[in-house]
Amino acid sequence: MAVAGSSYQRLPVLLKTGGRVWQAWSAMGRAQISTAPASFSRQNAVGPMQIQKSGMATAGPQNLPKLPVPALAQTVSKFLRLAKPITSAGELDETARIAEEFLASEGAELQALLEQRAQKLPNWLTPWWLNAAYLEARTPLPIVTSPGVLFPKFDYFGTAEQTDFAAKVISAALQYLDNMINCRIPLDKAGNVPFDMSQYAFLYGTTRIPQEGKDRLRYGFQEKSLARHIVIARHGHFFNVPVFDEKGAPLSCSQIVEQINKFVLPQSESVNPHQIGIVSSDNRDDWARVYQRLKRNSGNEQSLEAIETALFVVCLDKPTTHGPDRTDGDEQARQSLHGGGSESNSGNRWFDKTLQFVIGHNGYSGLCYEHTPAEGPPVANIMDFICDQFTANSFTTKNAEAPFASVKKLEFSLGDEDKEAIRKASEKMDAAAGDVELKAYTFKPFGKNFPKSQKLSPDSFIQLAFQLAYYRMHHKHPPTYETATLRKFNEGRTDTIRLPNPESAAFVEAVVAGVENDKRLAELLRNAIEAHKQYSMEAMNGQAIDRHLLGLKMTALEKGLKLPKLFTGAAYKKMQHFTVSTSQVPTRNFLRMCFGPSASDCYGICYNPQEKELHMVVSAFFSCPETSAVKFVQMLEMSLLEMEVILTRGGARSKL
Ligand code: COA
C-alpha cells in the first residue's frame, strides 16, 4: 500500500529550501534545549511544541511547568530513609550526623544557589545531566550507554529478503519522520498530563561527535536543511544512499532495493579489512584523537560528514551463529547492543549515530541507539510504528519521479596509526562483547493483569520481584536504579526511583526467613509496593533525591566550594553504586530493549510489562563470579510466582 500522497506533499518544499515546516520543527527543538548555540536567536524560532485539543503535538509552545527544586530538609530526610537498608548501624549514625551538619551549614547556601539557577534556566537540571550522564563520560558507548532494541522476529532469510526487509524498515522510518515534520505524533502523556515532546526532534540526523574531555551533539535539526540520505553499512563498508529525490519525494521500497542491489551489495561483497566504524566503540578520548586525525584528510572529512548528517544508519549484517548456551533472542540482543564482536558485526556499526537500525540476515533485527539525545520511549515509539507498518503492509510503493543522487561509497584513507587504532578497538570490543551476558526472557504466567487485579501498581510489583530475586541470590539488598521520567516538566529528562526502602527490605527479608504466614507476607508486600509507588509518583513530580543531590553537588563544584561531607560519606558512595539498574520501556508490539550493567558486579534490566506477559532482557558480566543473568532470571521467575501466591493466599489488605 502506498503512503498517502498528502503526507509527503510538503516535503519537497522543505527539503529543497530548508523550508518553513522543517524550520518549525528545527526551531521547536532548538528553542527547547538550553545547550543551543549562542548564535541562535529565540526570536527567530517558531517556538516549541504546542498541544492541540486533538491530542497531537504541533509546532508552538508547550508551556509546561518548570522542574522544581525540592525542599532541602525533605531530600535529606528521604536520603536517610533510603540509606537505611544498605548501611550498617554505625554508618547510618554517622550519616545522620553528617546530614544534620549539612542542613545546618553548607546545605542552605547550596540550596539557595540552586534555586537561583532554577529561576534563570528553562530547566536547572537538563544541561548538567547531559554533561554528567553522557557527554563528559569517557567510557565506550556500546553496552553501558547505548541501549539495544529488539524487533519481533520477522519472516525473512538470506541477502535478497534482508535487503527487501531493510527497504521496508527505511520506508517506515521515513514515514515516521514525515509524521514528525507534519506534527502528527500523538502527544505522550501520563494520564491527562502532557509530556515534553522535544526529544522527538532530536532523533533523526543526529550524531554524537567525539571530543577529548567532552563530546558534543551534532543535532539533525540544527543543520541548514534536512538530509536526503541515510547511510547503509555492510561488511564494514559505508554507503551514502539517497532516500528522497531532488523534489523531496521519498524513494519507493523497490527503488531503495534497486539502489542497494545495484550499488551497495556489489561493492561490499568482501569484508572490509580496515573497519573504521569499530573505533567509534572505543573510549571516547581515544576515538576523539583518531577522529581528529581522520578529519585532517579532506576525503575522510567528506565521508564523516555524510555519516554525521545522515538521517540514520542501516546496518546490513552478515549471518551470525550461536551455540546452545544462547537462544536466538540472546543473540539478537548481542547484535543490537554491540554487534557480537569484531569477527561478527561490531565493525559494521557507527556507534555515534543516534538511530542505527540493525538488520540481521535471518529474520532478527533491531536498533542500537545513542542515548544522549533522548530516552527509550520516543525511540520505542518509532519501533512500534515500524512494526505497525509491517502489520498493515503500509510502505511507500509510488516511485519518486524526479532524479535523485547516486549511491556513493564512503571511502576512508587510513594511515598506520588508524589501522592500529582499529586493531586495538577490535580487541577491546571483543573482550567487552565476550564479557557481557545477555538473557532475553519473557515471563508468561501473567503480565500487568495480575497486579492490577490485586489493585496494585504493576511496575512496583515487578520492582519488588527484582528485589526479592536479588536478595535470594546474593543475601543483601541491592542499591537499585529505576528510571523515572521528568517529561511532565519543560525539557525534562529523568530522575531515579530508588530501592531498597525500609518496606521493601522488610518484605524480602520476611520471605527469605520463611517464618511469616501468607497473610502477614501479603501485608508486607502491599506496604512495600505502595511505598515504591508513592516514591515513583514523587519522582515523576520532581521530588526524588538523586537529581537534587546531583544539583547541590554540581553547585558546590561550579562555585569552587568545598564538597560537603554528605557527598563523600559511606552512605552516599554505596547509594551511587547501582547494583541493579532498571528501566521500564512499554510498547504495543513485542519489543524488548537491553543495556549492560553499570559496573562489573551489577545487573542491567530493561523490561516491558504487557497485559499478559512480561518481556525483558537481563544483563550481567561473565567476569564477575557472583552475578549471573541466567540465575537471576530463574530467581525472578520464582519470585514473581511466589508473590502471586502470597497475594492470592494472603488476601486483600485487612483494615489496620
Ligand atoms: N490498581 C490497578 N491498576 C493500577 C494500579 C492499581 N493500584 N496502579 C497502576 N495501575 C495501572 C495503571 O493505571 C496503568 O494502566 P494501563 O496499563 O492501562 O496504562 C498500569 O497499571 C501501569 O501502571 P504502573 O505499573 O503503576 O506504572 P506506570 O505505567 O505509571 O509507570 C513508571 C511508572 C515509573 C515506570 C513511569 O512513570 C516512568 O517514569 N517511566 C520511565 C520511562 C523511561 O523514561 N524509561 C527510560 C528508558 S531509557
UniProtKB/TrEMBL annotation:
One Pfam family recorded for the sequence: Carn_acyltransf
Residues at the active site: 371
Signal peptide (from-to): none
PROSITE patterns on file: ACYLTRANSF_C_2
Keywords assigned: Acyltransferase, Transferase
Domain of life: Eukaryota
Gene Ontology annotations for the cellular component aspect, listed alphabetically: peroxisome
Compositional bias segments (type: Basic and acidic residues): 322-333
Domain Choline/carnitine acyltransferase, chain residue ranges per copy: 67-637
GO molecular function list: carnitine O-acetyltransferase activity
Disordered: annotated segments: 322-348
Xref: SUPFAM superfamilies: CoA-dependent acyltransferases
GO biological process per UniProt: carnitine metabolic process, CoA-linked
Entry-linked PANTHER family: CARNITINE O-ACETYL-TRANSFERASE, ISOFORM A-RELATED, CARNITINE O-ACYLTRANSFERASE
Family: Belongs to the carnitine/choline acetyltransferase family.
Protein name: Choline/carnitine acyltransferase domain-containing protein
Lineage summary: Eukaryota, Metazoa, Ecdysozoa, Nematoda, Chromadorea
